[in-house]
Design goal:
Low-confidence stretches: none
Helix content: 40-55%
Oligomer: single chain
CATH superfamily of the largest domain: YebC, transcriptional regulation domain
Number of domains: 3
Radius of gyration: 18 Å
Strand content: 15-25%
Number of strands: 10
Number of helices: 10
Structural class: alpha+beta
Order of helices and strands: HHHHHEEHEEHEEHEEHEEH
CATH architecture of the largest domain: 2-Layer Sandwich
Shape: globular
Strand order of the largest sheet: 3-1-2-9
CATH topology of the largest domain: Alpha-Beta Plaits
Length: about 250
C-alpha cells in the first residue's frame, strides 16, 4: 500500500474533529466547484463531480452545501475565481512532494506552501521537477469485513483493475483513471465495502525513510494539509506500518 493511501486510511480511521470539520467541508466544496467548472454541473455526465459529491456525502457534508457548491461553479462569485495549481517540491531526505491546491490568490498560496516546505527542511521545486515520478491512477480502498482478500482481488481484476495490494486491515485497488467508477461499482455489487475511491497520483518509485525522517515527513504532510487552499498532498516516502501506527496513536 502506498504511503499516501496509508495516510488517507489513518486519517479516516481517526475521524474528523469538530474543530476541523469546517475546513474539511471547505476543501470538499472547492473540489466540487472545480469539478463542476471542468465538466459541467450534472453529476450524471461528469465523473469527477460524481466522485466529489460521493466523497462529500461520505464525509456527512449537508446536501444544501453540496448544492450550493455546484451552483457557485457557474454562478460567479468566489467560485468563479478559483484556479487549480500543482506545486512540486522536496521534503525530508529528498522525498518528492506534490501539493494540489484550489486558490483564488496564487501569491498567498505559494508563499504558504513554500514556508511549510522550508521549515521542514525541504524546498519548493520547479514545474516538472518531481511530477515525472507520479502517475495518475484510480485508487480504491476497501475493508475485507470477513471476505476473502483473494475473492476481492478477483472481483476487482475481472472489472478491469490493474493491481491489487493487500495491507494491514485494508486492500488497495489500483485502476486506470477512466476505470475507477466501473471497478468501484463492481466491488460494491459483489458486497465489498468501499471505504474510498478517488483519482490519485501514485509514485513510480519510493524512498525508504528511517523513523526520524518518516515522522518528519508525516508532520510536513499534516502542516501542508492544514493550509486552507491545499486539496491533496502526495509523496513518495516509503514509511513502515509501525511508524504510521505510532504516529496515529
Amino acid at each position: 500500500m502506498s504511503g499516501h493511501s496509508k495516510w488517507s486510511t489513518i486519517k479516516r480511521q481517526k475521524g474528523v474533529a469538530d474543530a476541523q470539520r469546517g475546513q474539511v467541508f471547505t476543501k470538499l466544496s472547492k473540489e466540487i466547484i472545480m469539478a463542476a467548472k471542468a465538466g459541467g454541473g450534472d453529476p450524471a455526465g461528469n465523473t469527477r463531480l460524481r466522485l466529489a459529491v460521493q466523497k462529500a456525502k461520505e464525509s456527512n457534508m449537508p446536501a444544501d452545501n453540496i448544492k450550493r457548491a455546484i451552483e457557485r461553479a457557474s454562478g460567479g462569485g468566489d467560485g468563479a475565481d478559483l484556479v487549480e495549481i500543482t506545486y512540486e517540491g522536496y521534503g525530508p531526505a529528498g522525498t518528492a512532494v506534490l501539493v494540489e491546491v484550489a486558490t483564488d490568490n496564487r501569491n498567498r498560496t505559494v508563499a504558504e506552501v513554500r514556508n511549510v516546505l522550508t521549515r521542514a527542511g525541504g524546498n519548493l521545486g520547479e514545474t516538472g521537477s518531481v511530477s515525472w515520478n507520479f502517475e495518475n491512477r484510480g485508487v480504491i480502498i476497501v475493508t475485507p469485513n470477513g471476505k476473502d482478500p483473494d475473492d476481492i482481488a478477483l472481483y476487482a481484476i475481472d472489472a478491469g483493475a490493474e493491481d491489487v495490494q493487500v495491507g494491514d486491515g485494508s486492500i488497495d485497488v489500483y485502476t486506470a483513471p477512466a476505470d475507477l467508477e466501473k471497478v468501484r461499482k463492481s466491488l460494491e455489487d459483489n458486497g465489498v465495502t468501499v471505504d474510498s475511491a478517488e483519482a490519485s497520483r501514485v509514485p513510480k518509485t519510493t524512498v525508504a525513510l528511517d523513523e526520524k525522517h518518516a515522522v518528519a515527513m508525516l508532520r510536513l504532510v499534516e502542516k501542508l494539509e492544514a493550509i486552507d487552499d491545499v486539496q491533496k498532498v502526495y509523496f513518495n516516502a516509503d514509511i513502515s506500518d509501525d511508524v504510521f501506527a505510532s504516529y496515529a496513536g
